[in-house]
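SEQUENCE-TO-STRUCTURE ENTRY
===========================
What this section holds: a protein sequence and its matching fold, both as plain text.
Tokens: labelled as protein backbone structure tokens, with as many entries as the chain has residues.
Question of interest: how does this chain fold, as expressed in backbone structure tokens?
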Amino acid sequence: MNIKIFGCFFYLGLMFLALVGCKKGAATASLASDAAKRVYVAPGDKDEVYAFLSGGFSGQMSVYGIPSARLFKIIPVFSVFPENGYGYDEETKNMLRTTHGYVPWDDSHHVEASMTDGKQDGRWMFLNANNTPRLARIDLKSFETKEIIEIPNTAGNHASPFATENTEYLMAATRFSVPIPQSSVPIENFSKGDFKGTITMVKVDPKSGRLSIELQILVPGFDYDLSHCGKGKSHDWCFFTSYNTEQAYKMIEVGASKNDKDYILAFNWVRAKQCLDQGKASNFGGEYYRNFLPENQPAVSEKMSGVKMLQPKDCPGVMYYLPTPKSPHGTDVDPTGEYIVGGGKLATVIPVHSFTKLMDVKDKPEHRTKEIMNIPVLKYESTLAGEVNKPCLGPLHTEFDGKGYAYTSCFVSSEVVKWKLGTWEVVQHLPAYYSVGHLSIVGGSSKEPYGKYLIALNKITKDRYLPVGMELPQSAQLYDISGNKAELLSDFPTVGEPHYSQMIPAKMLMDKAAKIYPLEENKHPYAIKNEKDAKVIREGNVVRVLMTQIRSHFKPDTIEVRKGDTVYFHVTNLEQDFDIPHGFAINGAPEMPNLLIMPGQTRTFKWQASKPGIYPFYCTDFCSALHQEMQQYIRVSP
């Protein structure tokens, strides 16, 4: 028999045996008999929970209500959004500025909630950009992106933006190791140590939320995949999975799967800060942009230069490698801060490290096997609390319910396994349809999970929905985990490709959500607050139209410009009533989509008067019984 065919059958046989073995004696989840009743939210009633889902290749963040799974909003973050003009208009265009130029798209994977004392505090959400390394901060009063910071000296910002217990810092790590500083070297030099990674500590201002890069730490050139920071006793530490410790650069799916164990990197960020304060970090190159959107004003884009870089050899005790099987993807810390769970996607166990054991053995030579770039590698058994044996196929990510149980997603066997912390016993298998990635429990990555609901974010949909062409929307599934046995409640389609989610009780946010921009607080340089101030200003070939909107007309309502003029429509929505936005669009505008302008807000539409004629403009958001009459004309003269 052809050896490749034999290998395929052998592997499939192992998968079947493992799947049968791991399900023996464990209960499976079924659809709750009253599922429809439990997800139904009556007209006028509110959901219990907000769910914030990353958008993956959409570059955005979506907001759902749980348990109804109704989509409430798409928050534009790293990608342009024609629906409201984000990334196109003069106010938000600078939010997408990078050292590579204007980048109108990204790949957003992980959502993180701000925390105080390890508990969700409802101030901000953070989101990573994987392709062009960046972090974003979303304000949870306005549900708008307020800041984006670029991360230098890295590539593939995947292991981010994971927060320390009081949101002192967000952590970010390199997925694609590269020469640092960047240079053109032979790719085969990857295995010779010419490629490196970095861990980046992004400081979060406790009052304003403003982001700044405080420190980078140079690390070996592995692929750093995911992270979570400690809680309670492990407050000072963050943990990062790494794969491709083989440093393969061809046929990586084979070359990066040879080692039985890769590593979780245990990083003492408090120690790193001490070394920084002691002057042990050096000045290092690296340009990056920090983009900030002030309240109701144009975005400010700052080009920054240089960072502080720390070498592990100059800061003993800052990092340790914990061997972890095999090609670990997720690393998650339980609510007590004691257990660090690895998700080895090619492993037959779920390994659980003990923080107490780590503290006991980390500086004892007999518990070390070697050093890599002055980072000690500890013995696997020395930090091991236990293993969940034969749980499933392809364990990835773990969340916690706060009642002593953990839930781990299993990509290959398309299921979620529930297991007991401390005894490592699997107590339930929950089918997921299909190929589940991340999980999310309400507050499940915090010190105090709220529990009740779990979402599985599945990668393949297949037969779950009506066919709509060659690709279906990726599916999420909602489970009720409040009882002894979890029950499946519903499937719902998602936006883009969600990788991770944070769920927050609705009562924490709903009463704080902004309803309008107070007109008297509008500090936009071209805002006007009364119709009588509406006017047209000519500055050579630049024309500025200071315009107002209110149900159901514009002022000024007819506009005359000349061919070749660059026209800026600075449009202020004078409404002070909740949920009354106005739109603005011009017939045939080639570079600008619709603007959606909130009550009390000013937005700018830039238009080139390139051809003589009459051009209608109108409100695009149905606002009143006379909405259709909210239209006017621009005349372009030769």
